[in-house]
Amino acid sequence: MSHNSFGHLFRVTTWGESHGPALGCVVDGCPPGIPLTAEEVQVWLDQRRPGQGKFVTQRQEPDAVKILSGVFEDDRTDGQVTTGTPISMLIENVDQRSRDYSEIATQFRPGHADYTYFAKYGVRDYRGGGRASARETAARVAAGAVARKVIPGVTIRAAVTQIGPHAIDRSRFDWDQRHENGFWCPDAQTVPIWEEHLEKVRKAGSSTGAIVEVEAVGVPPGWGAPVYGKLDSELAAALMSINAAKGVEIGAGFAAAAFSGEENADEMRMGNDGQPLFLSNSAGGILGGISSGQPVVARVAFKPTSSILTLRRSLNEAGEEIDLRTKGRHDPCVGIRAVPVVEAMTACVLADAFLRHRAQTGGAVFVPGR
Amino acid sequence: MSHNSFGHLFRVTTWGESHGPALGCVVDGCPPGIPLTAEEVQVWLDQRRPGQGKFVTQRQEPDAVKILSGVFEDDRTDGQVTTGTPISMLIENVDQRSRDYSEIATQFRPGHADYTYFAKYGVRDYRGGGRASARETAARVAAGAVARKVIPGVTIRAAVTQIGPHAIDRSRFDWDQRHENGFWCPDAQTVPIWEEHLEKVRKAGSSTGAIVEVEAVGVPPGWGAPVYGKLDSELAAALMSINAAKGVEIGAGFAAAAFSGEENADEMRMGNDGQPLFLSNSAGGILGGISSGQPVVARVAFKPTSSILTLRRSLNEAGEEIDLRTKGRHDPCVGIRAVPVVEAMTACVLADAFLRHRAQTGGAVFVPGR
Amino acid sequence: MSHNSFGHLFRVTTWGESHGPALGCVVDGCPPGIPLTAEEVQVWLDQRRPGQGKFVTQRQEPDAVKILSGVFEDDRTDGQVTTGTPISMLIENVDQRSRDYSEIATQFRPGHADYTYFAKYGVRDYRGGGRASARETAARVAAGAVARKVIPGVTIRAAVTQIGPHAIDRSRFDWDQRHENGFWCPDAQTVPIWEEHLEKVRKAGSSTGAIVEVEAVGVPPGWGAPVYGKLDSELAAALMSINAAKGVEIGAGFAAAAFSGEENADEMRMGNDGQPLFLSNSAGGILGGISSGQPVVARVAFKPTSSILTLRRSLNEAGEEIDLRTKGRHDPCVGIRAVPVVEAMTACVLADAFLRHRAQTGGAVFVPGR
Amino acid sequence: MSHNSFGHLFRVTTWGESHGPALGCVVDGCPPGIPLTAEEVQVWLDQRRPGQGKFVTQRQEPDAVKILSGVFEDDRTDGQVTTGTPISMLIENVDQRSRDYSEIATQFRPGHADYTYFAKYGVRDYRGGGRASARETAARVAAGAVARKVIPGVTIRAAVTQIGPHAIDRSRFDWDQRHENGFWCPDAQTVPIWEEHLEKVRKAGSSTGAIVEVEAVGVPPGWGAPVYGKLDSELAAALMSINAAKGVEIGAGFAAAAFSGEENADEMRMGNDGQPLFLSNSAGGILGGISSGQPVVARVAFKPTSSILTLRRSLNEAGEEIDLRTKGRHDPCVGIRAVPVVEAMTACVLADAFLRHRAQTGGAVFVPGR
């Protein structure tokens, strides 16, 4: 219910502004007895960390996470484990560069949340975007690291499939490739195209959008629930809540609008393992809001970074018309750094769906023929 | 939290199966003193009603709504008004054709929720799709009718902008046109193209997808909230929960991925009315999860109806491989009938956002220069 | 969250006014596959039904419940079973005596919710108390009937332990006795005392309070959760929400304030069944908000019925000072008829706690020494 | 929904264990623009702080609170103010005396949550009671400090009215007195009686229970809502969630069970200020779950501290029967230190009720005769 929490049983609350002393999250509802250390969480945070290439912001943040509660270790536990009580994680803000914010303090940067925060609250922490900063997503990644441990049988991975107008060639999709370049690109031949595009964008002081695709393999049938707790509905909310997200689709998504019924309705056969097998996955692993056992597939569209050097017409708090350009350290393409965030949000949604499913049914899956 | 409810303060719970005695909803949290009659709700239900053309299902349902609670009238009220207590609305199922369901009772129709309901629950009301039937959306439309009255200054309207591969020409977009044809089509010249396409689809026993666009005009700045209660996040969840929805986008949506920063960042000027004015609306009326005062614009992709006459490979509950075709009364394009549902869900989300905004801030908007 | 719902996973929403066409509830989140018929629900409703003695209201309501959704039966199910989808239950209001309400329409009956509903909403259905009527509790009893079937190993039973100043003698407490009299009295020797007291009260046109005690036997250790989802906290909210409830206590309750630490801290031994055994139950079966395996024991204090024939000073909507007496068909002691309601609310809280526990932990209990 | 959060719109999430590095809370949904400093919060924490007398635990904790987010200050704000985003507050644990916990690590202290945490989770942080420690209430007090600022017109104050078997004489009730002694006692003549009682208890290594009474003056009519969001229901849940609470009553509470209808139904007259005036307040300021404008009055019963030096029979994790005495630094009467916690929880519930009321109705109150 609250504005800064999500999830029902695996519930995440985040807090913190870009230039406050720290940011963090509280994860409530995590099952007990799960091995969990700060180092394990750090692995995922390191993937999201800025300052790792010329196409991402140069802000230097170690993003070192501390676990303040909810874990315990003694000689009878399997190392440090969760206790079932709330897991509080904290990340200090270190590199809040002491710059002069007086200029943007009263100005509304086009495409930013500056104006809407002003209109709603009357007051806002304008330094670095305050609560609307992408720094908030560090807390999501920390929560996602915990979520992954709740559903160890599920593998969640995301990649960038389009930057600006340049989409990958899906016939060359190779998950292993995404770690071989700075763009999470699963298609080696697209990498130089993106490099050239981003270089042009960066030099122009402009920015560009992107699309991120995520898949979760190993989700058993039965997660999610009709009709407002649908798994796709929960995923859509979670992914759309990421900064700069403008669209979410499941499986074939918008392409399904042009499909015929034959293309859409994934046929079924019995697999060698005695489990139902779908011959295609237009549905993206979700039917009627419930997982089908196929990979859950979603895609998120990210708009270009709003902070650009081009002079843009705007207003200030006094209601005066102004022209402004947004300086500062900014990614030209926020979609790239969103990849670990998309994974984290997917993990949290699935962990929550797992717990809800276990609550209502005990967690068993009915298998045809058994 | 519960699976069959949505909204936080304006909260809607729906219940009912396709072939049960009735379906309905409970709307809780509605403000008191709002004039509301069953006739007003019926207006919207009549728009959703099947049996109104050859491209929609021939099931004949009057969908007559009764209001069972939450309203009152005496000589001091402005006709029948809401009391602030839960509004229970009921729609009887009348035309549950007494057919033989024995065939599909144990079979999984490809593209349907048959298999996933079985896998999750072990038992399901297979008659007409049970809870997964689009009949459930009648309850949403009833709730939406109440929601509209909570935010009388907001106009919500939707249209179909694509059927199959045939998109409208946006330069001819005319909201008035959508009532002039059976497709909610806002572009008169596209109507014959869709007619021809649907006729072909119908004759082939196939089906086709569609895209529905909705806009809400008159939403003041300030509705929605960071960072998981974002207005776009709430909209995405609500729209994705509609039967057959596979994608949701806000404003420029997926197209924004190909945008430059300049195209994306809507510039601002002061309007003649002393209110900020955006020179474009790529954002779809939402920045940082909070409404900007521009029209809120969203689009939903619907997959083709899964019920097709073509023989498809599948399984039954015994785990046997079967071939089946889905008979029965079905829309070849569920996207058309989804239009009033998309409007209703948007209305509910906005009514909820209005109440939440009023709770936290008192409801006032900060205007630059005042 | 919503005002007229309770429970988190086993979630109950009720609706309806005393003199509207019907009242009912929607139970969402019920596990699938549980045999459930309207007849089974009716058994509990019949216990709550008014018109069963001279000390309860003479309103004649059959309170016949219909199940409108969420159940299904075919030749493969164990009779009619739950499907995991929302269970909508409806009870028609039959005996809404066509009396003249013009007198109380604008008057505030002392002790009633008349004034507070007016102050909050400005409009209210004053007929029979509207939403504040004890008729609403019929919906709770229906929901409780479902809840009991979710936790079949738990036996829930309540009794009246005090009426007016007359408490039972606990040394004579005999659960079997409560069905032998019209007061749910577990102490046969107290029955004539209450009869005399109530006769006096009735003749005086007055009313009297009562205390109801409930116990749930068979609750395993582990239900409930720190620190705001404590089982006692949930029970307190649920029981305090019953009409006329003014106090709730768990185990020794208020008496514990006078206890020494030795009296309070229930000692433990290992039982013959290999399960921990407490040598006393001051805690009422709950420690740290989590069930201990001992019987869960709670007590609820009910104020006297506010409707009395004695002339009382009050106000009307015009702000005028008036004197009024409340006529109509009223129980002199609402506590008596609250017994099935107390049981029902306890059942709902426990069913919810069971599901939440199963979600987080899988449902197993850790047993010392295993 | 989550276990460690409460409130709906003014939502508090707490985290932390007794002997972890820190504890804290996140307050979400607070209105923007409210002046708030750490110093203001500290004032209330100092009232709860242990180590302030011989009848409270000797653990020395400065309980210095830091506000990590949700506030902002520049030359245009009224000092440091809330921004409407989540307020994260952190209190470091300083005096975690490095003692040997090996003894109790596997033992269940009677009356504690040791056994139930073990049974539920299998693992627990046994140091100082872990999550079940009363240290958690520091976070509640911090949240309550914020809540008070949301409803500045409401005065909330609590006092101890009974310790062990010794109740105050209500005819001598004087709120000013409660600051004149170490017991929050509003009756000067009772102070020496309690001193003697507690000295005896302390010397015996025993403990004693208590009752705390809280009142909130200045709550306007209209807060709270039927029928499961009743103000008394919310209060009951909040107060019962405090460590060692075993009972909650509103207004006359359990005494109302012995009342006649005449005693119970508070009569009304019009006050000199044109507002309705009740001639008594048996209802404790709440009718039908909605505030009446009278002081909201509640009482909480606390059991004796479970940690006593007397040898008690118990079990250990191996299932062995043991005898144990609980050493350590413990209050003989937890009820005393609960006073600021009772106030804080009441403040949080009322702030939440205020926001919910404003959401549904706009916040206005209907006054008879206007």
Highlighted features:
24% helix, five-stranded antiparallel sheet, 8 helices, 370 residues
Topology, element by element:
Four copies of one chain form a homotetramer.
Chain A: E1 5-6, E2 11-16, E3 22-28, H1 38-48, E4 65-67, E5 71-72, E6 81-82, E7 87-92, H2 114-121, H3 137-150, E8 155-163, E9 166-167, H4 191-203, E10 210-217, H5 231-240, E11 245-250, H6 261-264, E12 268-270, E13 276-278, E14 286-287, E15 290-291, E16 296-302, E17 312-315, E18 321-324, H7 334-337, H8 339-361
Antiparallel strand pairs in A: 1-2, 2-3, 3-7, 4-7, 5-6, 8-9, 8-10, 10-16, 11-16, 12-13, 14-15, 17-18
Q: Can you offer a commentary on this structure?
A:
The structure is a homotetramer of 370-residue chains. By secondary structure, chain A is an alpha+beta fold. Chain A is built from 8 helices and 18 strands. In chain A, strands 1-2-3-7-4 form a 5-stranded antiparallel β-sheet, covered by helices on one side. A 5-stranded antiparallel β-sheet of chain A has the order 9-8-10-16-11. In chain A, strands 5-6 form a two-stranded antiparallel sheet. In chain A, helix 1 packs across helix 3. Chain A is globular, with a radius of gyration of 22 Å. In chain A, 66% of the residues are buried. The mean pLDDT of chain A is 94. Chains in contact: A-B, A-C, A-D, B-C, B-D, C-D. At the A-B interface, strand 1, helix 2, helix 5, strand 11 and helix 6 of A face strand 1, helix 2, helix 5, strand 11 and helix 6 of B. Strand 11 of chain A pairs antiparallel with strand 11 of chain B.
